[in-house]
Amino acid sequence: MKYLKYLLIFIPISIIAKFMNVSDTWMFVLSCLSIIPLASLIGEGTEEISFYTGPKIGGFLNGTFGNATELIISIFALKQGLFEVVKSSIAGAVIGNILLVIGASMLAGGIKYKTQKFNVKVAEVSSSMLLFAVLGLCIPALFTHSVDPNLLNTRYEGLSLFVAVIMIIIYALNLFFSFSTHKDIYTNHAVEEVAEAKWSLKKAITILLVATVLIAIESEFLVNGIEAITQTLGWSEFFVGIILIPVLGNAAEHTTAVVMALKNQMDVALEIAIGSSLQIILFVAPVLIFLSLLFTPMSIIFNPFELIALFASVIIANRVSHDGESNWLEGVQLLAVYLIIAACFFIV
């Protein structure tokens, strides 16, 4: 994590390059290199704040701000009308968290420890909620792909708005479940390390706010360069959205999950990955639907391959979490599926 801070040098470089009217392709590359350390700072800032707010609220803030980078990038993409990039980034974040993050965590932890155990109850609750969330996200798409468009008496955007409202309600109920009525399930599943805050509360909040503002600036540079980078390198918007943006936006979060697995805290690694996926579907996606009303209304209809990839990822997550144990081979299997999906989107 500390080595990512060296990439902060690309922030002033990218701003200077913008004033010098450097090509959009180079601005895309510079903004990518700038966003990675800024996402890391956001993660570190929320972690420091958790020392003052307590672990439960801190964990919630970590998950919320952990997805802030991707949310900001998606807002700028919405403004540009890049709806396919936005929708593929939603799908890519879920697929990446489940296959890439959990896979890398199980592989890294499994190399160090023969078998790693985690709380089955927490994993079952989270994976079941994830299954519901993906179903709720995909049912409108499955419906519209299977019904003759001439038989539909409403626009896709109206259906998407209704689904977004339901998702937000479920998100609020899920928070109430974990923070209030069933908080005992989440209390003793991980061994908490004794640690002290390195930053003052004022410093942590200041860094968090500054990093968020800088990410907004760099996100605009990145989105403006998407069309140029797809033409220059021959990448599709699907590949940029489903692979590149989720990896960039969640780089720090992904690293944290792997580090937790290396510390034999697979509970925490799974919570980071599955919890982030839940928040993407139940909170970030609905918020983007609402915000699209300020520009051009966006539907939440995914293409068939995105649906298949989402369903496959969730089924794998439920299968992996059913026994409360993990090993390095399961990690390799998850990573292999992710690489196959990435390769398919690359050749589109």
Description:
- With 348 residues, the protein is mostly helical.
- Helix content is 77%, strand content 1%.
- It has 14 helices and two strands.
- The protein has helices at residues 10-19, 24-53, 55-66, 68-79, 83-112, 120-146, 156-181, 201-224, 226-233, 237-249, 251-262, 266-292, 304-320, 328-346, and strands at residues 116-117, 325-326.
- A two-stranded antiparallel sheet has the order 1-2.
- The relative contact order is 0.22.
Share of β-strand residues: under 5%
Number of DSSP strand runs: 2
Oligomer status: single chain
Task: Enumerate how many helices there are, as a single number.
Answer: 14
Strand order, sheet with most strands: 1-2
Keywords, separated by commas or semicolons:
14 helices, 77% helix, two-stranded antiparallel ribbon, 348 residues, globular
Briefly characterize the structure.
By secondary structure, the protein is mostly helical. The chain contains 14 helices and 2 strands; from the N terminus they run αααααβααααααααβα.
Topology:
Blueprint: H1 10-19, H2 24-53, H3 55-66, H4 68-79, H5 83-112, E1 116-117, H6 120-146, H7 156-181, H8 201-224, H9 226-233, H10 237-249, H11 251-262, H12 266-292, H13 304-320, E2 325-326, H14 328-346
Antiparallel strand pairs: 1-2
